């Protein structure tokens, strides 16, 4: 069974919780127990030393035993320990648990008492010669008089008391672990709300996109990385949707642009074949057929050109040339059309010769497309302004008409292939809609910029940049 991401996190949380509980219960508890054990052993040892120094020797004197027994009983009660004084033969002289019976110098005797059994240690965990019924820690220190050991002070506490103190200190570890687990489950809750739910929503969106439903939108609730990812998916779906619409529009436009001249050619040729067109009009209609054939040729050429000038594919022949000369030559080729419509040109050059470094043939096509575009949009008896200026290491070329202008809605779309709008096509309805696309692709292939500024009812201005030829690179005379 495959687990989703949330189930994996929950399973990991449970495993971590169990491992943490076992670690705290067995591992850390043993560390805490050993620490408490050593601390109590040290305290008992110091207590035994103090008792040995203050009460030890008089305990073996008959007239002092009663006082000593009362003293160790009080001390034992204050420290919650059991204190015994044992001589070297195992006779218990005083025991805090036996009261202060002065009638007997020996309370009881420990059989087989032998300090060598302790192996040089001063702490013994056990029953201390069967005196204690439960496991007990016993700490002892010798009572000496003139370098002679007369007996021992034995201070004892039950191990249950050690465990109790260790657990009282250790209980805070369980509380800390519980708080950490609560914080961890809270973190999982945050993960579920801020990460898992958005991921599920994005998964549903991707499924919808896979089904072709590009209108499905994700509700973006946060401005974090997840939110930006959701916004990116929405943007991607919108772009794909627009791309699909563009593809449909592209096919519709190109089909229309090819169908129109083909229909005309077919109609005129059929009329010529069946004799509908009289012989004296044959030349006129043949010229129409040739014109429509030229339209098909130009459209095909433009499509091929557009494919060739993609910035990542085009190979440019960069060389120095005079952009002013290219502009003058382009205007001359369009003189006939301009004279018929009484359109004039206003040329402004910052120098008689403006050398740039670019692919001359491609830039000629750019200038031709922009000038041709300006002529189509310009009203009769108007002026088209062309200006060449220098800005640093760049040359700016501006082509401005005083036509109807382009709407804000259409301004960002004029670079799209086959895009046509009534406001952007002017009086010419036979354009292919590829001229500006080709123009932008050529400029971008040169790693330069092109921009359009347009106001409805005022006119349109296109401005593109070229690299100015450096003085060191100018050809010698």
Descriptors:
alpha+beta, 3 domains, 477 residues, Beta-Lactamase, 7-stranded mixed beta sheet, Heat Shock Protein 90, rod-shaped, Helix Hairpins, 18% strand, 13 strands, 6-stranded antiparallel beta sheet
Overall description:
The chain has 477 residues and is an alpha+beta fold. The protein has three domains: 5-164, PAS domain (Beta-Lactamase, 2-Layer Sandwich), CATH 3.30.450; 225-308, Helix Hairpins, CATH 1.10.287; 318-473, Heat Shock Protein 90, CATH 3.30.565. 52% of the residues lie in helices and 18% in strands. The protein is built from eleven helices and 13 strands. It has helices spanning 5-55, 65-79, 159-210, 225-273, 282-308, 323-333, 335-341, 360-377, 408-411, 422-425, 435-445; strands at 82-87, 91-95, 108-109, 123-126, 136-145, 148-158, 318-322, 344-349, 355-359, 383-391, 394-401, 450-455, 459-468. It is rod-shaped.
């Amino acid at each position: 069974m495959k687990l989703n991401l949330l189930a994996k996190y929950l399973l990991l949380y449970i495993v971590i919780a169990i491992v943490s509980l076992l670690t705290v219960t067995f591992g850390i508890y043993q560390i805490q127990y050993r620490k408490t054990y050593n601390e109590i052993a040290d305290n008992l040892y110091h207590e035994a030393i103090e008792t040995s120094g203050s009460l030890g020797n008089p305990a073996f004197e008959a007239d002092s035993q009663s006082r000593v027994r009362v003293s160790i009983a009080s001390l034992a009660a204050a420290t919650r320990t059991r204190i015994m004084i044992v001589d070297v033969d195992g006779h218990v002289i005083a025991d805090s648990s036996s009261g202060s019976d002065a009638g007997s110098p020996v309370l009881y005797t420990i059989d087989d008492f032998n300090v060598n059994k302790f192996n040089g240690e001063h702490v013994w965990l056990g029953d201390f010669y069967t005196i204690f019924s439960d496991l007990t820690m016993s700490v002892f220190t010798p009572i000496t008089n003139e370098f002679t050991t007369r007996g021992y002070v034995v201070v004892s506490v039950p191990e249950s008391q050690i465990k109790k103190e260790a657990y009282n200190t250790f209980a805070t570890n369980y509380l800390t672990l519980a708080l950490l687990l609560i914080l961890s489950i809270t973190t999982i809750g945050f993960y579920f709300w801020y990460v898992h739910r958005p991921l599920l929503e994005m998964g549903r969106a991707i499924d919808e996109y896979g089904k072709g439903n590009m209108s499905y939108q994700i509700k973006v609730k946060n401005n974090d990385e997840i939110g930006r990812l959701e916004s990116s998916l929405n943007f991607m779906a919108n772009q794909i949707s627009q791309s699909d619409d563009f593809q449909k529009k592209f096919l519709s436009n190109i089909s229309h642009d090819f169908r129109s001249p083909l229909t005309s050619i077919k109609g005129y040729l059929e009329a010529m074949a069946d004799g509908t067109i009289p012989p004296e009009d044959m030349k006129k209609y043949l010229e129409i057929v040739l014109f429509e054939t030229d339209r098909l040729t130009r459209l095909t050429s433009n499509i091929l050109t557009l494919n060739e000038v993609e910035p990542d594919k085009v190979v440019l022949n960069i060389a120095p040339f005079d952009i002013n000369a290219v502009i003058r030559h382009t205007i001359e080729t369009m003189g006939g059309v301009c004279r018929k419509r009484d359109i004039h040109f206003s040329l402004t050059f910052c120098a008689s010769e403006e050398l740039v470094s670019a692919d001359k043939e491609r830039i000629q096509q750019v200038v031709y497309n922009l000038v041709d575009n300006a002529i189509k949009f310009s009203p009769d008896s108007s002026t088209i302004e062309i200006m060449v200026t220098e800005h640093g290491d760049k040359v700016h070329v501006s082509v401005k008409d005083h036509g109807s202008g382009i709407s804000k809605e259409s301004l960002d779309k004029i670079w799209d292939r086959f895009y046509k709008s009534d406001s952007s096509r002017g009086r010419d309805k036979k354009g292919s809609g590829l001229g500006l696309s080709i123009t932008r692709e050529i400029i971008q292939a040169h790693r330069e910029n092109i921009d359009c500024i347009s106001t409805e009812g005022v006119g349109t201005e296109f401005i593109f940049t070229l690299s100015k030829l450096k003085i060191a690179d100018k050809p010698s005379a």
